[in-house]
Amino acid sequence: MTTPALPAHPFGRALCAMITPFTDSGALDLDGAQSLADRLITQGCDGLVLSGTTGESPTTSDAEKSALVRAVREAVDGRASIVAGVGTSDTPHTVELARAAEKAGADGLLVVTPYYSRPPQDAVEAHFREVADASGLPVMLYDIPGRTGTRIEPDTMIRLAGHPRIVAVKDCAYDLLGSQKVMERTEFAYYAGCDEQVLALYAVGGAGYVSTVANALPHWFRAILDAFDAGRTAEAARLQQRVVRLVELMMASGLPGTVTAKALLDGLGLPAGPVRAPLRPAAPETVDALLDEYERLMYTSD
């Protein structure tokens, strides 16, 4: 199989790492997912990443992952790209999920580095190649060594750039030098996976972002990119700086972003529901702090 040439932003620029809504009983909430997806697109997202870290992929079944893609595909109706998270620590299982996501209607695949077993770089490379060979969908590599225990080293990235369907990277490596090395030597579309780095990566040639905070503020980071593209760099910097407090509360408070994103969405009356064990809900004081900061951003100009 071959993949046609893709644009510089193969999945769009403004992507949300969407939470997976559950009902109060913990079941998959497909109606809520469709409603949330519609809101995200209406307010600025041109791509949705499903079943990633924020989407609680470790605790959703294969059948739930496919059902989520189908439901969101119906709600999106061609208005945005759908990237399905299929990465696991097991190569054959990841291949199965890749094929299922393609069948369900995904536009692309997010594939995380195999975790826990900490494979060496030649095995990491072989894993990604096998998954990319398994379907006709373009692949976004997910480099997040803080969770997986294994980095996709820059030299490995550069070799993988030769695969026709490996086209993008979700960058959570916290290595801007390494990222720029790969960007300079490949045509990979680099997406910031850390909300505090959206403008920094975009300014050196990144394609956009895959944001957790965008679940609550889908327009905010899109406004950063739009301002930068229009040459209003001071405005872009101001918008990035203003959102830092909320990014810190959601992503650096000792709680997973899934927990804080669902807490904030629930507090705003949006589809979210509980997290699945072993995750636990945010404490009331955390929810209050998130809502207070959200209100400051939305209704003040400081």
TrEMBL record:
It is found in: Cytoplasm. Pyruvate binds at T54, V210. Its EC number is 4.3.3.7. Transmembrane segments: none annotated. It comes from the Bacteria. Signal peptide: none annotated. Coiled coil: none annotated. GO terms for molecular function: 4-hydroxy-tetrahydrodipicolinate synthase activity. It is an enzyme of class 4 (lyase). SUPFAM superfamilies: Aldolase. Pathway: Amino-acid biosynthesis; L-lysine biosynthesis via DAP pathway; (S)-tetrahydrodipicolinate from L-aspartate: step 3/4. The active site is at Y142 (proton donor/acceptor), K170 (schiff-base intermediate with substrate). The record marks T53, Y116 as: Part of a proton relay during catalysis. Keywords: Amino-acid biosynthesis, Cytoplasm, Diaminopimelate biosynthesis, Lyase, Lysine biosynthesis, Schiff base. It catalyses: L-aspartate 4-semialdehyde + pyruvate = (2S,4S)-4-hydroxy-2,3,4,5-tetrahydrodipicolinate + H2O + H(+). Belongs to the DapA family. Catalyzes the condensation of (S)-aspartate-beta-semialdehyde [(S)-ASA] and pyruvate to 4-hydroxy-tetrahydrodipicolinate (HTPA). Homotetramer; dimer of dimers. HAMAP family: DapA (MF_00418). This is 4-hydroxy-tetrahydrodipicolinate synthase. It comes from Streptomyces macrolidinus.
